């Protein structure tokens, strides 16, 4: 149970660890710090210049579920909040295991998934390898690939298509042999996405179902251009874990001791 007095001096007696790297995690850290809660945000360290949340910040992994469990015990963490990216399946699995083994309260927050609208032409697939197979079966043409730099190996053997790859950081090989790289970070605009797709004569968009507004303009642009989208579905949450969709719900759970 969350101690009484959330939002008061008593809340400072509670220690929260946020597994972050998302906009939701930064928003949550600020709101909790403003309420006097002792918050530490943990970042994976995969981006060289991340947007830092307020409060204490640690960078780097824990050493698996056991290492995270050790940290929870040693730091006397009362609440573990998994506010990582929807595709950060490994750390989410570690969080669920560590919370269970240490009897630490776990709250997972995941922004809502994207939903196809009228005029969309989406093909949903389960994995990045499935997405690569769909692309290989398509006619030649430029593919806009926005799945992140860690998934490019799935497309590395495709010599039939041109790839326009957008990432925040430069990717490491293997990468598609016919690749044009764009280094950029959202948020993106509809006009900007339309200009990008038109200037490179993009024929299909491949993306992950990250959800949220930060990068959704590409979907609106694809709809306007009548372009097909290959959408990689999110991995399932760990067994027994149910996520809430927004920061407001997290605050409600913390304040009333529910979940």
Task: Kindly state the percentage of residues in helix.
Answer: 25-40%
CATH class descriptor name of the largest domain: Alpha Beta
Q: How far apart are the termini?
A: 9 Å
Low-confidence spans: 1-10
The name of the CATH architecture of the largest domain is: 3-Layer(aba) Sandwich
Please give the largest β-sheet. 6 strands, parallel
Average pLDDT taken over every residue:
92
Which radius of gyration do the C-alpha atoms yield?
Answer: 20 Å
Give me the secondary-structure category.
Answer: alpha/beta
Percent of sequence in beta strands:
15-25%
Assign the CATH topology of the largest domain. Answer: Rossmann fold
Report the order of strands and helices. EHEEHEHEEHEEEHEHEEH
Description of the molecule:
With 259 residues, the protein is α/β, with parallel strands linked by helices. The protein has helices at 23-34, 64-74, 89-102, 128-136, 190-199, 217-225, 247-256, and strands spanning 15-19, 38-43, 56-59, 79-82, 105-109, 122-125, 142-145, 162-167, 179-183, 202-208, 229-232, 243-244. The chain folds into two domains: 9-112 and 236-256, 3-Layer(aba) Sandwich (Rossmann fold); 122-232, 3-Layer(aba) Sandwich (Rossmann fold). The longest helix is centred in the middle third of the chain and has 14 residues, at 89-102. It is elongated.
């Amino acid at each position: 149970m969350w101690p009484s007095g959330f939002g008061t001096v008593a809340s400072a007696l509670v220690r929260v660890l946020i597994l972050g790297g998302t906009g939701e995690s930064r928003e949550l850290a600020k709101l909790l710090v403003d309420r006097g809660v002792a918050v530490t945000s943990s970042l994976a360290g995969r981006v060289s210049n991340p947007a830092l949340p307020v409060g204490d910040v640690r960078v780097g992994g824990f050493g698996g579920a056991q290492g995270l469990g050790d940290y929870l015990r040693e730091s006397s963490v009362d609440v573990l909040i998994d506010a990582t990216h929807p595709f950060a399946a490994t750390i989410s699995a570690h969080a669920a295991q560590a919370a269970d083994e240490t009897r630490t309260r776990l709250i997972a927050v995941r922004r809502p998934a994207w939903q196809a609208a009228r005029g969309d032409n989406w093909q949903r697939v389960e994995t990045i390898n499935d997405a690569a197979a769909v692309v290989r079966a398509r006619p030649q043409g430029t593919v806009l690939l926005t799945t992140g730099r860690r998934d490019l190996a799935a497309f590395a053997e495709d010599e039939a298509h041109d790839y326009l790859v957008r990432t925040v950081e430069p990717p490491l090989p293997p990468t598609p042999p016919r690749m044009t790289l764009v280094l950029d970070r959202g948020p993106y605009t509809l006009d900007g996405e339309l200009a990008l797709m038109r200037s490179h004569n993009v024929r299909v968009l491949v993306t992950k179902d990250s959800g949220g507004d930060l990068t959704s303009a590409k979907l609106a642009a694809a709809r306007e251009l009548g372009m097909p989208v290959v959408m990689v579905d999110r991995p399932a949450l760990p067994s027994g874990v149910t996520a809430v969709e927004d920061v407001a719900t997290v605050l409600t759970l913390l304040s009333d001791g529910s979940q």
